[in-house]
Amino acid sequence: MQDTFKLGDRIVRRMGYGAMQLAGPGVFGPPKDRGAAIAVLRAAVDAGVNHIDTSDYYGPYVTNEIIREALHPYPDDLVIVTKVGGKRDEKGAWLPAQQPDELKRGVEDNLKRLALDVMEVVNLRIIGAVHAPSEGSIAQQVEAMVRLKEEGLLRHIGLSNVTAAQFAEARTMTEIVCVQNHYNLVHREDGDLVDSLARDGIAYVPFFPLGGFSPIQSGALSALAEKLGATPLQVALAWLLHRAPNTLLIPGTSSMAHLRENLAAAELKLSRETLAELDAIGTT
Fold first, then answer.
1. Is residue 233 part of a domain?
2. Does a structural domain hold residue 111?
3. Has residue 16 been placed in a domain?
4. Which residue in 61, 48, 47 sits closest to 19, CA to CA?
5. Enzyme catalytic residues
6. Is residue 130 a contact partner of residue 94, using CB atoms and an 8 Å limit?
7. Are 81 and 123 in contact (CB under 8 A)?
8. pLDDT recorded at residue 212
9. How many independent structural domains does the chain possess?
10. How far apart are CA 81 and CA 95, in angstroms?
11. Is the pLDDT assigned to residue 77 strictly greater than 70?
12. pLDDT in tens, 196-207
């Protein structure tokens, strides 16, 4: 199993890091322990992570400010990927910000807080139902992203929370280097899309790889993990890495112990028999 894949023009390790949990509860406000958040980020990079996923509306602003404090000036091989298309209100609700001026402001805010001149990859996040895509043309938003690319604010465009039809539409307009959708051991609606992207050499980045705000729970998963001498969530991450060569993982944590656990999942080898048992979990 290869441990790297192409993301835009860069080669990154398939086990990355998602910064969402560096913010406070509900991804809103500051963390309880800013020093611990900084330490986790530095430990991830020291361990070889070179793909960090973030957004300026995490917090809002919090995660990008922590990333900058922890890691700037950034290592040459570090790829920071952000997303635009959303915002938060004063109570922390997730709201769409899909107009061209909002998308531009989102990219500019990410650049400012991360202290970057250009973003390597920016995902256009389509916000309807917050964590589930809905059909409809996204041409207007993609056109706006293309203009930002032409202005030199970003190098590559990705998509998040989109349908296969929306990906196909966007791809007729510009190169799409990654898709970031909800996918994990028990949430597999995107299976065909994962496979088609793999055939075309395009990265697929599952968000909520461990279930998100409601972690994956399965007696069968726990039993398999015990036999493998691993935790259930390590096995769930390993399954994603085995699922397709183009999956790039971004599990997030503000805990040093959980960071080590997540990174160790990349070393877990799953036999064909174990994979078959895990595949069955998602169909029962």
1. no
2. yes
3. yes
4. 61
5. 58
6. yes
7. yes
8. 80
9. 1
10. 20
11. yes
12. 999 999 999 999
